Amino acid sequence: MVTLNKPFQSANHFDSFCDKGIFYSLCAVIFILPASIALLDSFAALTVFFYLLKRINRLMINWSLAPSNFIERVIFIWKGFAPYPNFLNRPLQFLTLAVLISVIFSQYPGHSLVAFIGKFVKCLFLYFCCIEVLRDQKRIQIFIGVFLLSTFITVLNGIAQNYLGTDLIKGKVVGFENAVSTHRISASFYGANGLGAYLLLGISLVVHFTYSIYFRRKSWGIFLLAVIFLGLLLLCLCWTYSRSSWVGYLVVLVAATCLDSRKIIYTGLLALVLFVFFIPALNQVRHMELINDRIGNNSENYSILEEGGSGRYIFWQKSPFHHPLIAHLGDRP
Questions:
Q1: What confidence tens digit (pLDDT) does each residue in 231-288 have?
Q2: Are 322 and 184 contained in the same domain?
Q3: pTM of the predicted model over 0.90
Q4: Could you give the 3-state DSSP secondary structure of residue 215?
Q5: Three-state DSSP state, 289
Q6: pLDDT of residue 1
């Protein structure tokens, strides 16, 4: 006779199978991220599927321990799908609540709910999957290695796009972003800002690795390869001409210095790269400064605090008054 709470495999074997499925799917997600949204969503769905499969099997095993009270049983099920304890769990709870409130008060609640489930909740479960399986040094090293390999391919693709005019994966024309030629590389990403944001994580890792290799006096060959990789990353970051990514680059250097004050000379030299090479190139290519918009060589400068940032500040300033619940406030004296 088969009981309902009996797992269809032993807990240890089935958990191991699901953990491998989650881990390999996550590696596929991080590897394919720069190239294909469709494959990214497919592997993300597969990752979440293995996570839910593992948790459902655990609930089946422990169902006999579930309380009889309805509210307590709901809490029991909720805890069954909850992630492992992590210092980010509490901030994410507040973030989820804030996003849910924005969905409720949205002008288009139906579309917002679809986006909340299809995008935010999906990313939330991917976070659950990460802390589920990235719990030992070997897996973390493999995961980072896969990411850096993908980053290296993306960097080579960006360099090829700069010199050949099109990237090698999707054939995207250099600088063709929103139908405007800007001489900015984007590799296989939709736009240059997306590539710049993607490069920041790779830069932060390689900055740490390069310093660690030098500080620990490891192989000089590996150190040279790390320096070359860092140089290629910075070259691509420069060619994005993404000011927001450049500010993020400075934040990365400040964070690295705060975590280890011994890096201050190293990070200071890397910061000089921004001011000595990046900003002059920005003036020549986009005719802009880091904190000012300047269209044309003889045009008037606009501060980002006034009308800069491609007009984003004005949009952010006016957007709350478009909400029907508070739009009337703009008519009050």
A1: 999 999 999 999 999 999 999 999 999 999 989 999 999 999 999 999 898 888 877 7
A2: no
A3: no
A4: helix
A5: coil
A6: 34
Reading the block at residue 80, the tokens are: 């069954």
50-54 LR contacts (CB < 8 Å, sep 24+):
50/18, 50/21, 50/22, 50/25, 50/129, 51/18, 51/22, 51/125, 51/128, 51/129, 51/132, 52/81, 53/18, 53/21, 54/14, 54/15, 54/18, 54/19, 54/22, 54/132
Q: How far apart are CA 260 and CA 82, in angstroms?
A: 34
Buried b (16+ CB within 10 A) or exposed e, 19-34: bebbbbbbbbbbbbbb
Question: What's the whole-number mean pLDDT along residues 284-296?
Answer: 71
Domain that holds residue 330: 301-333
| Residue 44: inside a domain | yes
Regarding whether 270 and 166 lie in a shared domain, the answer is yes
Helix (H, G, I), strand (E, B) or coil at 171: coil
Look at the chain and report how many structural domains it folds into. 3
